[in-house]
Design brief:
Layout: H1 5-8, H2 20-24, H3 34-37, E1 47-50, H4 68-74, H5 92-97, E2 100-108, E3 113-120, E4 126-131, E5 137-144, H6 153-160, H7 173-180, E6 185-186, E7 188-190, E8 194-201, H8 204-219, H9 227-233, E9 236-238, E10 247-249, H10 251-260, H11 263-275, H12 297-307, E11 313-319, H13 323-334, H14 342-345, E12 358-365, E13 376-383, H15 391-405, H16 411-418, E14 424-425, E15 429-431, E16 438-446, H17 451-468, H18 472-488, H19 496-508, H20 521-534, H21 536-549, E17 554-562, H22 565-583, H23 586-604, H24 609-614, E18 633-637, E19 640-646, E20 652-660, H25 672-681, H26 689-699, E21 702-710, E22 719-729, H27 733-746, H28 752-772, H29 774-786, H30 788-797, H31 799-814, H32 816-830, E23 837-842, H33 844-860, E24 880-883, E25 890-896, H34 907-927, E26 932-937, E27 943-949, H35 955-962, H36 964-970, H37 975-989, H38 995-1008, H39 1012-1023, H40 1027-1043, E28 1045-1050, H41 1052-1061, E29 1067-1070
Parallel strand pairs: 4-11, 12-17, 19-23, 24-28, 24-29
Antiparallel strand pairs: 1-7, 2-3, 3-4, 5-8, 5-11, 6-8, 7-8, 9-10, 13-16, 13-17, 14-16, 15-16, 18-19, 20-22, 20-23, 21-22, 25-27, 25-28, 26-27
Helix pairs in contact: 4-15, 6-12, 7-34, 7-37, 15-20, 15-21, 16-17, 17-21, 18-26, 20-21, 23-34, 25-28, 27-33, 28-31, 29-30, 30-31, 31-32, 34-37, 34-39, 36-40
The structure holds zinc ion.
């Protein structure tokens, strides 16, 4: 399922609050910081088959957690100084009795954890059991699944095994877990060489339930004996009667069409495949839509039989649960198998190094009217080694990656962007998630004639860095940033134990030491010592020279824009389908139509209640009655409100200052995101931006600035804040606040060339977003037609923003002083300590210490009375068909429920979650073939939105939205199902948060006026939701059906055919891409 959190992230970092968590337990924003701000990971690596609520979305910033190089740096564990924990492990007698042998045990001081590796003697399965005090327990099972072709077997299998199993014989146990468990993580991913099935929960009973459903799913799935599951998740011909044309349907088929519609993904895939001409990485494990239909059910079955076997399994446990019980649970599954040779068969062969560089040219689809003069992409990729690197070299490469690319001041990034040869960087950096590490760097938005210049500049910059080395400030800044991140171990909403599992797996999977990636203290000390004695140049220059400059295994990929490519792909598919149809006898076609009908019928028939009962669930008595408490003390200082949260943070201080943003005139709003970027990346009179950035890196754990806008329930005026957010070791609090002051007051908007870069980078980012995250564009468009915060968000991150950027790019050249003046006007309008809110999260001792530094910051700020402007500019409501080159659509429909007089009740959360996990999942995804279908209710504004993601349909999806009303009216819900729906909703409300997220959420509640009483009331309403509430909600949703507006991001052809089918349905709006 697609994450609702994805929606929340639209806008320029603002909390356009749209999901439940934002009301009751306002969700965790992406944490700021240099490491996060530039995730230059390659998102092609992992294919998230189902993106559950709190999972990273494909390609979004947090997906970076899957890139080991990033992970190693930013998601590493606490550098513990505490005494070793007592030795805890499974009961040795039971270990033996269950047929395990202990391979090795280590105390990992970095994590305050005891890790024990076991081997299941009969089958050879390996189990890593990590014991510590973390309540967010994690389980994962991983199989090596290298594909031989691009038919997508590993990916389709990953989807399919979660569609029913021996013990859980229902259509989708996975969805039942989504609906009714307290999981803090639930998903599965396909890599180029492995498939991972992780779950997490803080509730022990819930955790065991999740583990059992997953183990049964991977070892005894129904999909290997039931071809209809393969057809649904993989591919099948769809035809309603024999006179109709055939089409392809299938969830993975459409998901991958979406992936292949994104130029960045296409580039990433080609780079990987060309870099590894001779092994499993030469093909696409996710599946190429042009060959997915070659896959047969027999090949699919065989792949499962071979690789989903204990002998090829690596199992991970992490957290505060009983280690003996872990072995008992897995043995119950493992002991039914005999050893096989899958471990040998699944080995990935190393790619030997090429003796000569090679160049590849390919094409990607752009719109017919697009100006293609600056649309080329180029990426240089080195395979770094043909054998495993030692830990110290790996760590040094991670540092090098941060030094050359990790911040706006990093020289390779800076030089390339300042050259104006391209608009933005392509996915760049060290990638060491696969058997052999690689390094990529490139640019997009390049003129064809400039491609050689980009390549030369990359090489000459690397050469210069190898010759001259890095400044000591730069090295110190990278060192501090990385150490801070290691110590803080802030994995955001991603469970810490999962981040560790993925890291360990990167070695374990290849038969290397799984403990090694869990340690960083010693190698870090060694590296620091080496830098101290030999100098940074002696450490980094040889790396650049040997791994890059002298390395002949270099693949340069150029991607050229092609206005005909879209039509070509479409035509090829049509032609192929026509051929198939022509080869079929009438009887065979009728058979296909019957099969289509049967599959639909099956998909639309609910599971019998007995089957649903098979999936274990908690009962309401397992649920705490009270909302999660976050301590808050409210005070005042120099005219500002002080919020203090006394929470243990391991000596890190988290701080936000929020200013009133409604002081900014309406016409300047689109400039706000670039204003924020300028504050951080423009420099002051005494300090250029490089020095400023290095100072931030040396003294803090990161600082960010962004706007935040939301409706406030019951009020006409929205809430809108400018937030500056930072973190530092408490001992560096003075530097943190002093830097915040510098950023807010001293930065000068003088660097026209840099500003131009920001504009073209943002433009390029928006263009990728239109193709890859069309649902966000749709949602923001609809919201902009319904309320002011929506319109504000759209101006700062929607389609209007793209239009604005295209104009602004010209204005910078023709009238730079006016732009400068506007930037200055924004600053003067909001910067005042009056009415500001300071939010601090740390323990009492550190909170008290911070006071004098906060005071100095506030004293330095102006004291002007904020003057609130009237904001207008709601978009004229109309049904819009936004046309872009894409193989799949994104369809939305929305209306404001408060317009009907509806009054918020906690049951609304239960019901909208239920609709998303049942009706929309079944109709839009399962039978419609889209990758995702969901709905969202923004309880602040009252806007209810239906959305689809990577959808082959358009008008039909809207029909399904409208049928929700009928679905609710006819709904029958037994107590079990209702309880599950309630528990699942509580799981959202109580989502697991690290300390910084707790403090931040509390601030947002304060800003939006959500009191503890209200949270309690909503919780009671959630817990007492009844079937009657569902029926009553049907009447409310009638309003969306009747009065709702529609928007879609779609291909020209699909908009046209939707309009043919229903004249006047959509007003076409072409966007050149
Ligand atoms: Zn998938």
């Amino acid at each position: 399922m697609l994450s609702r959190a994805v929606l929340r992230r639209r806008g320029a970092g603002g909390f356009k609050a749209m999901e439940l968590a934002s009301v009751l337990n306002v969700g965790n924003r992406c944490s700021p910081g240099i490491l996060r701000r530039f995730p230059h990971h390659r998102n092609q690596l992992a294919c998230f088959s189902r993106v559950s609520r709190r999972a990273p979305s494909p390609g979004d910033a947090f997906g970076a957690s899957l890139s080991v190089s990033r992970r190693k740096l930013c998601n590493a564990p606490q550098a513990a100084v505490a005494a070793p924990a007592p030795k805890i492990g499974a009961n040795p007698d039971v270990v033996k009795e269950l047929g395990f042998e202990e391979v090795r045990e280590e105390f990992i001081s970095e994590y305050k954890s005891t890790a024990v590796l076991y081997r299941h003697k009969k089958t050879g399965a390996e189990v890593m059991s990590v014991v510590n005090e973390d309540e967010n327990k994690v389980f994962g099972i991983v199989f090596r699944t290298p594909p031989k072709d691009s038919k997508g077997i590993p990916h389709i299998l990953e989807h399919s095994v979660l569609c029913g199993s021996r013990k859980y014989p229902l259509k989708e146990p996975f969805v039942e877990l989504l609906k009714g468990s307290l999981h803090t993580f639930l998903n599965a991913f396909t890599y180029p060489d492995r498939t991972c099935y992780p779950v997490a929960s803080t509730n022990l009973k819930d955790f065991y339930n999740l583990v059992d459903v997953y183990l049964d799913a991977v070892f005894h799935p129904r999909c290997v004996s039931d071809p209809q599951i393969f057809q649904q998740e993989g591919w099948h011909y769809e035809v309603n009667d024999s006179s109709e044309d055939l089409t392809y349907k299938g969830v993975v088929f459409n998901e991958m069409k979406g992936v292949y519609s994104q130029p960045d993904s296409v580039l990433g895939r080609i780079c990987q495949q060309e870099l590894f001409p001779n092994n499993a990485y030469n093909v696409d494990s996710g599946g190429d839509p042009s060959v997915i239909p070659d896959l047969t059910f027999e090949e699919f079955q065989e792949f499962h039989r071979k690789f989903y076997h204990p002998s090829n399994a690596r199992i991970w446990f992490y957290g505060d649960d009983d280690p003996t019980e872990r072995l008992r649970i897995v043995n119950a599954y493992l002991s039914n198998f005999e050893a096989n040779n899958s471990a040998a068969e699944s080995e990935v062969k190393p790619q030997s190094l090429l003796s000569e560089p090679k160049k590849i040219k390919e094409k990607y689809a752009v719109g017919e009217e697009t100006d293609t003069s600056k649309k080329h992409m180029v990426s240089m990729n080195w395979l770094l080694s043909d054998k495993p690197l030692d830990l110290e070299t790996e760590l040094a490469l991670g540092f090098l990656d941060h030094l050359v690319l990790g911040t706006p001041a990093a020289p390779l990034r800076k030089t390339l962007l300042e050259s104006h040869l391209g608009e933005a960087l392509t996915s760049s950096g060290v990638e060491d998630d696969l058997l052999q590490p690689q390094f990529s760097i490139g640019m997009k938005g390049v003129a064809e004639s400039d491609i050689p210049a980009v390549e030369e500049l990359i090489v000459s910059t690397l050469q210069k860095l190898a010759d001259e080395g890095f400044t000591s400030e730069a090295v110190e800044a990278s060192m501090n940033t990385i150490e801070f991140a290691l110590r803080e171990n802030n994995t955001g909403s991603f469970p810490r134990g999962l981040s560790l599992m993925l890291r360990s797996m990167g070695k374990w999977l290849y038969g290397r030491d799984p403990f090694e990636p869990l340690r960083f203290a010693k190698p870090l000390e060694d590296l620091k010592a080496k830098i101290a004695t030999e100098g940074a140049k002696a450490v980094f220059s040889p790396l650049i020279q040997n791994f890059l400059l002298s390395n002949k295994h270099l693949v340069t990929v150029e991607l050229q824009p092609d206005a005909e490519k879209s039509a070509e792909i479409e035509a090829l598919e049509k032609e192929r389908l026509a051929k198939v149809k022509a080869s079929l006898a009438k009887q065979e076609l009728e058979e296909l139509a019957r099969a289509t009908e049967e599959l639909k019928k099956r998909q639309e028939t609910p599971d019998p209640p007995e089957a649903l009962k098979a999936v274990p669930s908690l009962s309401l008595s397992d649920i705490p009655k009270e909302p999660i408490h976050v301590p808050i003390a409210i005070g005042e200082m120099h005219g500002a409100t002080m919020l203090r949260h006394d929470i243990f943070t391991n000596d890190v201080l988290y701080a936000e200052v929020a200013f009133e943003l409604r002081t900014v005139p309406s016409e300047l709003l689109p400039l706000v995101p670039l204003f924020c970027q300028s504050l951080l990346e423009m420099g002051t009179k005494d300090m250029d931006f490089v020095s400023l950035n290095l100072l931030i890196g040396r003294k803090t754990g990161g600082i960010s600035v962004y706007p935040s806008t939301s409706s406030v329930r019951g009020k006409k005026e929205p809430s809108s804040k400018m937030i500056i957010r930072g973190k530092a070791m408490a001992s560096q609090a003075q530097d943190l606040f002093s830097l915040m002051r510098t950023i807010l007051q001293d930065v000068q908007f003088t660097d026209k060339e840099r500003f131009k870069q920001f504009v073209s980078q943002s433009k390029s980012g928006m263009e990728s977003r239109l193709r890859g995250a069309g649902h966000r564009i749709v949602a923001s468009r609809l919201d902009a037609m319904l309320n002011i915060p929506g319109a504000v968000g759209e101006k700062m991150g929607g389609l209007s923003y793209l239009d604005y950027l295209r104009e602004l790019e010209k204005q910078v050249d023709t009238d730079w002083p006016a732009v400068q003046q506007n930037l200055e006007r924004i600053r003067t309008s909001f910067l005042s300590r009056k009415g500001a809110i300071v939010n601090l999260t740390a323990d009492e001792k550190n909170l008290t210490k911070a006071d004098s530094f906060v005071s100095s910051l506030l004293e330095a700020l102006p004291e002007t009375e904020p003057v609130v402007c009237t904001w207008n500019g709601i978009l004229q409501p109309c049904n819009e068909g936004i046309i872009v080159p894409t193989q799949v659509n994104y369809v939305g429909k929305a209306a404001n429920l408060y317009d009907t007089g509806y009054e918020l009740d906690g049951s609304a959360y239960v019901i909208s979650k239920y609709i998303g996990n049942t009706w929309l999942w079944d109709r839009v995804r399962v039978s419609g073939g889209a990758y995702g279908g969901f709905c969202d209710f923004d309880s602040h504004s009252g806007v209810f939105t239906y959305l689809s993601y990577r959808d082959p349909n358009l008008a039909k999806t809207i029909d399904n939205y409208d049928l929700t009303v009928q679905f609710l009216r006819e709904l029958e819900l037994d107590d079990d199902a209702l309880t599950k729906a309630i528990i699942g909703t509580i799981g959202d409300v109580d989502s697991y948060q690290l300390p910084d997220a707790k403090g931040y959420s509390s601030m947002l509640r304060y800003i939006l006026g959500i009191t503890e009483e209200e949270r309690k009331l909503r919780r009671e309403q959630i817990l007492s939701t009844s079937l009657r509430d569902f029926k009553a909600f049907a009447d409310v949703l009638e309003h969306v059906k009747e009065k709702g507006i529609v928007a879609a991001v779609a291909s020209a052809e699909d908009v046209e055919s939707a309009n043919k089918e229903r004249p006047g349905l959509l007003q076409p709006k072409k966007v050149s891409l």
